[in-house]
């Protein structure tokens, strides 16, 4: 299962940690739901272990965002939603970042799963309120579900595909009815759902972009917007849920501001100049040398590596298999021989990264070694539909010695390409019509050019012309949503318990749905069937086995050229803040940090001196 995130609610686009459900034998209200059995936190728990419940409130934190924005509605396909806008909206339940596959009551005080597992009733808290003081009602929940499924981003239709309806039950209850009892993830899926105000949205066009400030129920309100340039949120001091256990020690800043920058390079320089405060870093060169300077030497800037246990999913150079040039898997495999990860890691990344071998890297879900007997039972019915290698060995991306000498890889690539009808003539790789193998690599981050250009040089050695094009974020989003690309960097975040979101990642139906995350255009009856098996897995062990089987099929399908991953967060910050002693394993939990007034004054007093150096 994935955690659907909106705007700046959390910065790791690919991260999700909810899961299949362990429910009581008979229907009974529960304060939370869990995948792995008993919940870590009992009824009436005081707060999560990874917060400081006495953290002071106050101060301002500034973040950077890249590109621009044109809407304050994060729930539709149209437009680029503003960073941080997700903080306006509360959900029925709230996840625990130190406990995989769990969620606890927020707008809902309890959840009651039917004994036959075909429905769940969420009971709303009587004190739950929108920011204008109006009561959150079952009618709001029902309207939200119906609207998101009918008019929201296409991901909602896929995610809620097996949720048939929502209906009011009594004064404070909402029953969600499911298509099947086998999809045990469904109760927690609806628990993730934000609750919108029916009264506010009636009379407004939900599907249009808008800069009208929406009515929310969450911990922050929009204080000011400079369209396309900045958005400032103010903590709602009358927030109805601020003292609930799921919120104690969180949402500590009085003001959160996001300033927009044209690209990440400019944003880095702005951070070093003190224009904003906290910066997650995903570029190894930046982390190694990009922060060097007087402010870092003087201790005004801190660099922290915070370990995590987050499944890393897959980042890679993704092929758009809708393009005829990439429809043959042998072509895709051939190109994978020409990406020299070992040289790249040594010369560009300071040896920081681990190569991805799986769509579920850094977790027990990753396929390793030869398929087990149980995996083979699942895979056998698809023999002839999936690559033979799936049955024989573990997927392992092509390797080099890191020196830049890739002659053996070039020979392997040419052998595969010649089998498909591509040959080298006059220094160009051409087909039977004499047309050169040419395609475009679409980028949004200029920092990636230094990684992609050596790949282009290796391709040129066998006569392939790869044009590298870097576009602005708005154009990039539009092109990716409409699958208007040949190759791009793709990232698929996974959780410890994959489920319904796999339909959006891999299913044939998602391949033709603009805005879906099946950007590679995968259409495979075998993959569709394996996704259904994962969704309907009856227990944890079968989920692991079925996920490993899917992993093998995806890996040997050569839909991406695997990149790399880290098992820790890299966060740079101006030394104005403190954070709890305990870091949760599944999130950087920036919403648990707090502002230290004296420390901030010291930093601001010293900043002019170090900036002169």
Overview of the structural elements:
With 613 residues, the chain is an alpha+beta fold. It has a domain of 252 residues: Dipeptide-binding Protein, Domain 3 (Dipeptide-binding Protein, domain 3). The protein is built from 18 helices and 25 strands. The strands form eight sheets. It has a five-stranded mixed β-sheet with strand order 19-18-20-14-21. The radius of gyration is 25 Å and the shape is globular. The N terminus is likely disordered.
List the helices and strands and how they pair.
Elements (H helix, E strand, L loop, with lengths): L31 E3 L25 E7 L26 E3 L6 E4 L2 E6 L5 E6 L13 H14 L2 H6 L3 E7 L3 E6 L7 H6 L6 H4 L18 E7 L3 E6 L19 E7 L2 H9 L5 E3 L3 H7 L3 H4 L3 E7 L6 E6 L9 H8 L4 H7 L6 E2 L17 H7 L27 H14 L2 E3 L2 E3 L7 E6 L5 H12 L4 E6 L2 H9 L5 E6 L9 H5 L1 H4 L13 H11 L4 H17 L3 E3 L1 E2 L2 E7 L2 E2 L15 E2 L1 H16 L1
Helix pairs in contact: 8-11, 10-17, 16-17
Characteristic key phrases:
613 residues, alpha+beta, Dipeptide-binding Protein, domain 3, 5-stranded mixed sheet, 4-stranded mixed sheet, 25 strands
């Amino acid at each position: 299962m994935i955690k659907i995130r909106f705007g700046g609610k959390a910065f790791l686009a690919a991260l999700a940690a909810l899961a299949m459900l362990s429910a009581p034998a008979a229907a009974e209200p529960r304060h939370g739901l869990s995948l792995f059995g008993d919940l870590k936190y009992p009824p009436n728990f005081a707060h999560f272990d990874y917060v400081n419940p006495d953290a002071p409130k106050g101060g301002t934190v500034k973040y950077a965002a890249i590109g621009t924005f044109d809407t304050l509605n994060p729930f539709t396909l149209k437009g680029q939603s503003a960073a941080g806008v997700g903080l306006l909206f509360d959900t029925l339940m709230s996840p625990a970042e130190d406990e995989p596959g769990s969620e606890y009551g927020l707008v809902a005080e309890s959840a009651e799963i039917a004994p036959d597992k075909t429905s769940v009733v969420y009971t709303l808290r009587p004190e739950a309120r929108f920011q204008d003081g109006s009561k959150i009602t079952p009618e709001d929940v029902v309207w939200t579900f119906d609207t998101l499924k009918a008019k929201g981003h296409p991901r909602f239709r896929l995610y809620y595909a097996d949720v048939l309806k929502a209906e009011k039950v009594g004064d404070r209850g909402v029953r969600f009815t499911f298509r099947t009892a086998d999809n045990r993830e469904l109760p927690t899926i609806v628990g993730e759902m934000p609750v919108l105000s029916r009264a506010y949205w009636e009379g407004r066009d939900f599907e249009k972009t808008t800069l009208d400030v929406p009515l929310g129920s969450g911990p922050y309100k929009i204080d000011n917007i400079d369209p396309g340039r900045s958005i400032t949120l103010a903590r709602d001091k009358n927030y109805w849920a601020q003292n609930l256990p799921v919120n104690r020690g969180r949402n500590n800043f009085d003001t959160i501001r996001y300033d927009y920058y044209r690209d990440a390079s400019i944003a880095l320089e702005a951070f070093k100049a003190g224009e904003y405060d906290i910066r997650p870093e995903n570029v190894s060169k930046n982390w190694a040398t990009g922060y060097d300077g007087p402010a870092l030497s003087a201790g005004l800037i801190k660099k922290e590596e915070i370990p995590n246990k987050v499944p890393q999913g897959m980042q890679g150079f993704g092929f758009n298999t809708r393009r005829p040039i990439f429809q043959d898997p042998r072509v895709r495999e051939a190109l994978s021989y020409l990406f020299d990860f070992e040289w790249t890691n040594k010369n560009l990344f300071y040896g920081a990264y681990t190569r991805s071998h799986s769509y579920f890297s850094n977790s027990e879900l990753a396929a390793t070694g030869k398929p087990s007997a149980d995996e083979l039972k699942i895979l056998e019915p698809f023999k002839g539909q999936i690559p033979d290698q799936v049955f024989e060995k573990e997927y392992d991306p092509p390797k080099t010695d890191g020196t830049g000498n890739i002659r053996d890889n070039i020979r392997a690539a040419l052998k595969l390409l010649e089998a498909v009808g591509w040959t080298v003539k006059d220094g160009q790789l051409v087909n039977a019509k004499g047309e050169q193998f040419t395609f475009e690599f679409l980028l949004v981050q200029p920092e990636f050019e230094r990684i992609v250009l050596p790949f282009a040089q290796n391709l040129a050695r066998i006569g392939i012309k790869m044009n590298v094009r870097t576009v602005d974020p708005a154009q990039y989003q539009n092109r990716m949503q409409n699958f208007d690309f040949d190759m791009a960097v793709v990232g698929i975040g996974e959780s410890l318990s994959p489920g319904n979101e796999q339909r959006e990642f891999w299913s044939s139906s998602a391949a033709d749905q603009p805005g879906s995350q099946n950007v590679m255009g995968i259409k495979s009856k075998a993959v569709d069937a394996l996704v259904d098996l994962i969704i309907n897995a009856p227990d944890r062990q079968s989920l692991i086995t079925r996920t490993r089987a899917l992993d093998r099929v995806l890996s040997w399908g050569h839909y991406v050229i695997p990149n790399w991953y880290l098992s820790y967060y890299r966060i740079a910050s101006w030394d104005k803040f403190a954070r709890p002693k305990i870091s949760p394993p599944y999130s950087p939990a920036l919403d648990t940090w707090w502002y230290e007034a004296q420390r901030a004054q010291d930093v601001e007093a010293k900043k002019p001196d170090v900036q002169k150096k």
